[in-house]
Amino acid sequence: MPFCPQCGVENPPSARYCDQCGAVMIPVPAQGPAAPPPATGRPGTVAAPATAGPSTCPQCGVAVIPGEAFCDNCGAPLLGAPRPVAPTPAYGGVPPQPAYPPPRPVAPATPPVAPAPPPVAPAPPPRATLAPARLIVQPSGVAVALPSAPQALVGRADAVSNFFPDVDLTDYDGINLGVGRRHARLFVQAGQIMVEDLDSTNGTFLNAARLSPRQPTPLKQGDELRLGNLRLRVEL
Fold first, then answer.
1. pLDDT of 134-192, one tens digit each?
2. Which residues contact 65 (CB under 8 A, 6 or more apart)?
3. 142 near 169, Cβ under 8 Å?
4. Is residue 95 part of a domain?
5. E strands within 138-223?
6. Are 181 and 165 in contact, with CB atoms under 8 Å apart?
7. Angstrom distance (rounded) from CA 215 to CA 211
């Protein structure tokens, strides 16, 4: 019987590892009667009998001799080694369910956007006209309306030449007071009513000041406009 070279315990002939300490066994040729094993430990101590172990190695699964402390194939400890227990499924015996992909998030429906209304072109400003301004004949107080037009020719009618101005002052003794046929022109400029003398013979006066021909001059509320000797008060 071979003895362990490390602890001196006797092992079976086929043992590759010591049953006591697990050291690698070195085969020793048989020579006569076996020598008694060296004393180990303190005097009087007896080696503990081998405890029956598993029949197969729990590490490599090779069959082992009952009672061996270490596996002859891989050297794993056999005595006191826990029996391999089949692992319990973590899912408690219920087969795992197939993993389905998570549902794809659905984006919230975007409400339809109403088309913007087409731009509305601003209404053109009303055309500037002379109305509702008036000329008040002095001293009678008769009102002479001005036409709803941007300009008007002021004078007196002449049936011989078939000429009729926009503002006819014939009925207000215009011929005797020196009003010419094409005496003056009234027109609107930048929202302001202007007066312009048209080279009249007897002249055009604004608040007693004679106007230069062809020089437009603005009119104000209450101004006195005189054509020859016909006096008119301006009402805007």
1. 999 999 999 999 999 999 999 999 989 999 999 999 999 999 999 999 999 999 999 89
2. 12, 14, 15, 72
3. no
4. no
5. 143-145, 151-155, 167-168, 184-189, 192-197, 204-206, 209-210, 217-218
6. yes
7. 7
Host domain of residue 201? 134-235
Identify the helix (H) or strand (E) that includes residue 107: none
Read off the CATH number of the domain in which 181 is found. Answer: 2.60.200.20
**58 with 76: CB under 8 angstroms?**
yes
Dihedral Cα 5, 11, 15, 18, nearest 10 deg: -50
Count of domains in the chain? 2
Which residue type occupies 12?
Answer: P
- Cis (ω within 30 of 0) for the bond into 139? yes
pTM exceeds 0.70 = no
Answer yes or no: are the C-beta atoms of 181 and 158 closer than 8 Å: yes
Name the average pLDDT for the chain: 80
* Domain assignment present for 194: yes
Distance, CA of 89 to CA of 85 (rounded, Å): 12
